[in-house]
Hints:
The protein is mainly α. It has 2 domains: 21-92, no CATH class; 101-268, no CATH class. The chain has 12 helices and no strands. The protein has helices at 21-50, 54-65, 71-92, 96-124, 132-135, 141-145, 149-164, 173-179, 192-208, 215-220, 236-260, 269-277. The radius of gyration is 24 Å and the shape is elongated. The relative contact order is 0.14.
Amino acid sequence: MPAKRKVASPSAGTNARKLPEWITDHFKESLNSHELLMQITDISARGISVLRGMPKIVKVLADVEGNSDHPDSVKKLERAQKESELAGTEVEKDFPVLHGLAVVALWSWMEHFVKGFVALWLTHRRDALDVPAVQKLRVRLGEYLLLQKAEQAQFLVELLEQELASPLKRGATRFESLLQPFGLSFQLPDGCGQTLFELQQIRNAIAHRSGRADRRLRSDCPWLKLKINQPVLVSRKMLHAYSGAAGEFLLSLLYRVGDVYSVDLRPTEREAANSSTEPSP
């Protein structure tokens, strides 16, 4: 996994660098689910690799027990051989199916993270309901009042998405469009925006085009050098680049939220220098 980014810790004896718990809890929970996704993906890759040697193990055990000709043993060996062949293909191509599923999950994680955060912002910040974009929403009052408070905020986020056409926007602008009305716009690190854009396009190809490149993907991401109808193979390196960009997005938003609360979370030059010289795990 990519090296974790470190946020500068508060100076000793000061309470000036604190954020409300509803903010830190959401970021912590989201970060944990992000890390779990990447860990499960890596563990699954190792498990698939092990399957390549299973036919030999199954055969040896059947021979030792003297039942290698038994129908159940034959079926078990055939199944192990098929799984071994599939695992071999995955390993040889750097786990494209596994990484493709992880790409779809990663983009969904980003959508859940941002929409959940905006819903919390609407729930806990009185001024959030006063922003023009929210004031313009057409709400069916009867339907809205029947919802619990947390559901009301989620309801407003869905309406806001429709009003801003956020699902139709591309790359990081998909999420920035929801954050901008609340004064939460921010600058992404160099290269992060393009990587997130690539993540979205690869995700769309996997989820909607059977994992094959079309003219739009080839035109949008020429640096991938894909051919039309070519299978889109997501390597470990690509997945970890997407994961790193998603983490950069989360961190950049956290810094911006800190600014709103007059809490400077950005590392000092000294802390940043120390972090950059630490070896990756």
